Amino acid sequence: MFLEGRTSLRSVICFVRRHFRTSGYVGKHYKAFLDPMRPPAAINLMVVGTGSKGSPKSIIIDTGITRYLINAGEGTQRILTEQKSKASRLQHVFFTQMSWDYVSGLLGVALTARTAGVKKLTVHGPPKIGEVMQLSRHFADSETTDIVKSEILQKPFEDPAFRVQAFPICQLHETEEPESKRPKGDAFDHTSRTTYAYYFQPFQQGMKLDKDRCISIGIPRKVYESPLVRDLLEGKTVTLPGGTIIDPKDVTVPAPLTPNFLIIDCPTPEFIPAFKQNAALMEALGAKSGTPNLHPGLSLVVHLTPEGLFNSDDYQSLVQLLDEVGRTNSIISQHLTDLGSHLVHHLVLDGSSRLPAFTGIYSQSTILNHYFDTKAYPLLYDIQTEDHRRVINEAAATVHEPFPAVVFAHPHLQYSLRPWNGFNSLEYPSLDRETLIDGAFDLYHTTRAEAEEQFKVMRSKMAESMKTLGSGEKNPEAVNIEDDRIPAENYPELTFLGTGSSSPNKYRNISCILVKLSSEDFIMLDCGEGTLNQLYALYGAEEASRILCRLRLILITHMHADHHGGVFSTALARTRLLGSMKASGRDMGPPVVGTLPVLAPPTFARWMTTVEELFRHGPAISLFVIPNVYESPCPLSIHPPICPLKPESPRYAEWTSILNRLKLQVGPVRVPHTGSSWAFVIRGERSALKDTKFNIVDGSESNDWCIVYSGDTTECDDLVQAGQNCDLLIHEATMGDEHSDLAVRARHSTVGGALRIGKDMKAKFILLNHFSQRYGRLSPLDKFIPNVAATFDFMRYLIKYDIESTWAFFTSLSHSSLHEKTFFTLLQVNFKDLLRLPFYMPYYKYAFSKHWDTQLMKTEAYTWRKFRERSADQNSDTNPSAPDEQIACS
């Protein structure tokens, strides 16, 4: 008790010192902000995403003090993180529809805001928007900021920057076609019959300080940059210590007017009459306010529409109406003369932009592809060919005039309202190959020339090891092919769409693995937020759509958002595609189930039901709850402890039909992480491999392949037993070994723990996955282990072999005769790409040296901090009577 009291006293002293020191600092330098705030000095609107394939349709309004987000679709959190947007200023989110497309990223945004210190996030719009966050609290991986629903539908919202009015826009009539005869896609194209328009009126500044006048009459800089400015702007006379009297009229001038703007969302042509006939909206645009620093009118309209709708004749009639309202009611044109012939400007977010909203992924993809492996690390779609790169570069080079009539949005586009400078494009990162590669190196860490020397050493070691394999000599670093029985099938093919944990960063998205079972069958292992964007980024719209239509199953390990947050977006995109194809009569290939089968823990059922009720998207998922179709807990008599199927389940026949169709066996294994966390043991059939050139038929004893996916877990004996002798273990390695205390606290595994599990399991190959974002670009493991590699986003390992090219590769490496039988044995028992990956492990740090050095410094700092804490605890135990005066605050 005595020691506890002393610890408490130390905490109190530290708190008091920090509190008064911080309070004094704030009072001295930010006194003006403790009073009622004046309108902000700057207002800028920036495009976050345009709604192109897989990206959100969203904008952000920044006043330098507060940020206002318009819609928070899936991927918003990652874009804001990549752009280093100051989440600490984000305080308001406005939603234009109660649509999953616009709300799916709210949880991620709330997590980011909480991390940045935002205690309250106010949401505006649909009445039930706040319920989404309330439902998510039971599975959110960490504490989020408090979500508060505003009363904007009852009265205008006001803060120091804006007065905002919301206008519900209801579709006036339904389509005449009976619902039973409508294509299924219509259920998703007409998800909400109400959208919300927002009319933003900035509070005008009134007067502003003219620094040139201050300088001309000799006012010191420390005066006109001090809180005394507040008194001058309020019309008060200021007397300086020397007796000089400053009259506000001598140093202030009227501030330029700031334009009003309107945000409208028109999801279908049926909404156009509702906008034109909404008397409340049209009246508000021209109404004069009783507040002197508000003015009527309209100078900017932000349109959220489907692609192609804006240029239709019906929609152009709405545009003309808004132009007329702007010309008739705006007083701002009387004060500005550089607007050209357009008094109202239109910004269109319709998803037509070719510029990617995410850019960090292109750097990662290019470097891995260039220096390591073109097959395992494919280039992303937008930079795969010269034609693709040219389209991107031309779009990025577009320069907009400040005040054109219409601009179609693209990422990084900005509209400045205060000062009113109109449109301007922030510099878009170059996706040129050489630029991306050069950007990874610098003089302070590793130069490109130094790194390329190391890569030569890497290739030399790999070639030497391959020669040893061919000649039969023993090499301690060579892969032991005698012990490996990894099958050489055309399928499965694994593509990692997300390899990070908790939340996405610039280079790693959160958990998802795409498994290609055949040319017509795909499944996913987990599906974190942003999976859809990753799919489009890698494959392009056409191929990604083909994959979505052939997605047969998603397996969810547990109910943390980084493992299931992308399920609904993926399922909705799939259902829309199928509906569109059916409506147009296009061939969908083999029979496709309308709803997407998902195997998930019990909590997912409640989440799915509520989401479908709130968003009225219609059925997109066919849910199979693990304990309903498998016996859980696993009976003690069953070894290994893989939960068996439950024949008495009402959905047993349906579930086994799906597995039989895919020629799969899926075995859940309970693992310790959350209350209901699972790993999966997945087995699939493989036919005998026959090669006509060598006249060899595979004689393997086993006729199936086995992959174990750990999900999130600590080291687990049940998983070791369940995965014995598997071909591939994909195991989470969230933390480095130096952070083992954090791993224990969060019930995750370390790199060392994952390797121990793989060794005890006798796994043929181990892929480390699910890295903490403290290892945002590369894993903490940097040594060669023959059967171990680390995952990266978009990493793909192919089990499909080109016999001719592989034979040429191995014969070119070996000076001695490589027997056909030896070659084919090597080909048969190893995944071609997995064989290479361990050689790369010691060399990734040269490609990403800046990030590697930063990781090492942070790890060292953490280790020393823990050492000091342990030392302090030991000292307090050995010196319990140390005087209070010696207590120090860090």
Automatic annotation (TrEMBL):
Keywords noted in UniProt: Endonuclease, Hydrolase, Metal-binding, Nuclease, tRNA processing, Zinc
One Gene Ontology biological process: mitochondrial tRNA 3'-end processing
Listed GO CC annotations: mitochondrion
Xref: Pfam families: Anti-Pycsar_Apyc1, Lactamase_B_4
Cofactor: Zn(2+)
Catalytic activity: Endonucleolytic cleavage of RNA, removing extra 3' nucleotides from tRNA precursor, generating 3' termini of tRNAs. A 3'-hydroxy group is left at the tRNA terminus and a 5'-phosphoryl group is left at the trailer molecule
tRNase Z endonuclease domain segment(s): 59-105
CDD domains: RNaseZ_ELAC1_ELAC2-C-term-like_MBL-fold
Entry's EC annotation: 3.1.26.11
SUPFAM superfamilies for the chain: Metallo-hydrolase/oxidoreductase (SSF56281)
Family annotation (InterPro entries): RibonucZ/Hydroxyglut_hydro, RNZ2-like, tRNase_Z_dom
Segments passing through the bilayer: none
One annotated GO molecular function: metal ion binding
Keyword Metal-binding listed: yes
Keyword tRNA processing: yes
Protein family: Belongs to the RNase Z family.
PANTHER family in alphabetical order: ZINC PHOSPHODIESTERASE ELAC PROTEIN 2
Protein name: ribonuclease Z
Organism from which the protein derives: Calicophoron daubneyi (Rumen fluke)
